[in-house]
Every structure is written in structure tokens, then in C-alpha cells.
Design a protein that fits this description.
The chain has 14 helices and eight strands. It has about 300 residues and is α+β, with helices and mostly antiparallel strands. It folds into three domains: about 70 residues, no CATH class; about 100 residues, no CATH class; about 80 residues, no CATH class. Strand 6 and strand 7 form a beta hairpin. Helix 1 packs across helix 2 and helix 2 packs across helix 3.
């Protein structure tokens, strides 16, 4: 006997297909509820700025949170998308794992001599698992020179080790979620922000030849040398370079990135003093916008 549950206009649906359709219908209903909540919460200033005025983004964040057992407001406060993947603040991740009833313990150790963090956890019915992360690992990953690793090395190394072991052991509970602080650090490394000198992107933008050079063909050679020494290597305005720098300043997402641009502006031979002064003002305004730093992990 075929495993048939219903017939509708000659269309036969198996029990498996019927179950899938019921699940899909529930998901549609859930999404509609999330949309209503997202529209409500996105109108307030009591949620993160990334969701303010963005009801659809808020709805998806709420639905992501529901997948791992978070309430709507908890989802908006803790869920973020980093480089296309959902991520959670580290403390929310630990709360989910400990609240699941599957975790017997999470233990952290630190070896001062080797500057290595070791985090162990035991899931019920399974053997203990451990992961480590050292300062040598941080250097190899291009992280050791960052301000957070200079100021809080133990905390950051421990965060890495803990992220690795918890995501490995409790993958079914976390449903692919990453640790937000760690994911943001990894994304910064992927962008290849070099700690000294100009980045390749800036060099390419600022190396464009200045259009006013065509005017230098005028027969007044004696007046050219003096302004060159007082302003920049060619003494000419570089509007394309200034616009590019202003765009990069506005796109900075952290004080670390902004500080790197300060070096580029100061050392650029393609900008005259007036242009640098204008960029310093834009830089200062952007720095002032970072009035509230994200909590450290």
C-alpha cells in the first residue's frame, strides 16, 4: 500500500510531502510574525542602530534568534551579520550552551610562560574536548599587533580558544552562528589593513596624475619650484585623491582603521597642505562619531 495521506484534485501527496508543506506553512506564519515585531521594534531607539528604521533586517534577526532559542529583544541585542554570516556576542553564546542542559562544564586555563589559552568543555555523554590559542598563533594570523591584543592579551587569546571549542562541540545548538567579536577580527584581517605605510588601495587612488599638470606647459619656469617645496611633491591640487580619502574616512568602521588613514594622510606626497588640513578635519569628525566603543570580549 502506497504511503498516501491525501488526494486533492487528482494530486496525491505522500506523508513526507504533506509534512514538508506543513513545515513551510509554519515558517511563513513565523516570518509574518517576525515582520510585525521587526516593524514595531525598528521604530524605536532602544535597539542597535543597525536595525533602527530597518524592519526587514530586524525581522530576520528575530527569526535567526528563534532558531537558537532567543527571545525577540535578545535577538536584536545579540545577533549581527558579519561578512554574510550570523554571529552572536560571546556571552550570549555561552548562555545558550549552558541553558541547553547539555553542558557539564566550561573551564579555562592560561599558561603564562608560553602565553597560551586553553579552554575545555564536556558535553553530557561525551568525552572532554579542549582547544588552545597562543600569542604565536595570534602573530601568525596577523592579530598580535592589534590594540585589543596589546591591551588585553589573555582575554583575547582565551576568547579565541573558547570560540573554537564551543563551536566544535555544540555545533547543533549554535546552528552555524559565529562569535561576533572573533568574526569581526577575522574580517578585518581579510581586508588586509597593513599597520604601517600606505595601503595598496590608497596608493592606487592617490597615484593618479593631476589634471592641472597640463597647465605647466606655460612658459613660466621660474615660478614653479617655490610652491612645490611649500605644498606637496608636485604642488598641484589632487581632487580625485581628496575625494577618495574622504570616502575611505567615512567608510571606516573602527578606530583602528581610522588611525591607519591618519598615517596615510600625513605621509602622502600627493596632497598639499590645504588638502591635508581639510582631510584632518573630516578625520576628526569621524573619530568623534566613535563616542561609544563596543564592549570588549
Amino acid at each position: 500500500m502506497n504511503d498516501l495521506m491525501m488526494m486533492n484534485g487528482g494530486t496525491e501527496l505522500s506523508a513526507e510531502m504533506s509534512k514538508k508543506l506543513q513545515t513551510l506553512q509554519m515558517q511563513v506564519q513565523t516570518l509574518e510574525l517576525c515582520r510585525q515585531l521587526g516593524a514595531h521594534y525598528s521604530c524605536t531607539n532602544m535597539i542597535p542602530k543597525q536595525y533602527q528604521g530597518k524592519p526587514e533586517d530586524a525581522a530576520v534577526a528575530i527569526q535567526w534568534g528563534m532558531e537558537i532559542g532567543l527571545q525577540p529583544l535578545q535577538s536584536l541585542q545579540n545577533v549581527a551579520v558579519i561578512n554574510g554570516s550570523p554571529a552572536l556576542w560571546g556571552d550570549a553564546l555561552i548562555a545558550i550552551i549552558k541553558g541547553s542542559g547539555q553542558c557539564e562544564y566550561i573551564r579555562s586555563e592560561f599558561d603564562e610562560e608560553s602565553m597560551t589559552a586553553i579552554v575545555s568543555t564536556k558535553r553530557k555523554g561525551e568525552p572532554e574536548e579542549s582547544r588552545s590559542f597562543s600569542m604565536a598563533d595570534a602573530k601568525a594570523a596577523g592579530l598580535a599587533s592589534r590594540q585589543t591584543y596589546q591591551q588585553h592579551p589573555k582575554r583575547m587569546l582565551n576568547a579565541r580558544a573558547r570560540s573554537h571549542v564551543l563551536r566544535d562541540v555544540y555545533a547543533d545548538l549554535l546552528r552555524g552562528f559565529q562569535v561576533r567579536e572573533i568574526s569581526e577580527e577575522d574580517h578585518k584581517v581579510e581586508k588586509d589593513i597593513t599597520p604601517s605605510g600606505q595601503s595598496e588601495t590608497l596608493k592606487a587612488l592617490l597615484s593618479k596624475p593631476s589634471e592641472p599638470k597640463a597647465v605647466e606647459s606655460k612658459p613660466e619656469p621660474e615660478q614653479k619650484p617655490e610652491p612645490v617645496k611649500q605644498q606637496s611633491s608636485n604642488g598641484q591640487a589632487n581632487p580625485d585623491g581628496v575625494k577618495a580619502m574622504e570616502s575611505l574616512i567615512s567608510e571606516c568602521k573602527s578606530l583602528d582603521e581610522l588611525q591607519l588613514l591618519a598615517t596615510d594622510i600625513k605621509e602622502s606626497p600627493r596632497l598639499n597642505q590645504a588638502e591635508k588640513a581639510g582631510l584632518r578635519k573630516a578625520w576628526g569628525e569621524k573619530k568623534a562619531s566613535f563616542s561609544k566603543q563596543e564592549p570588549e570580549f
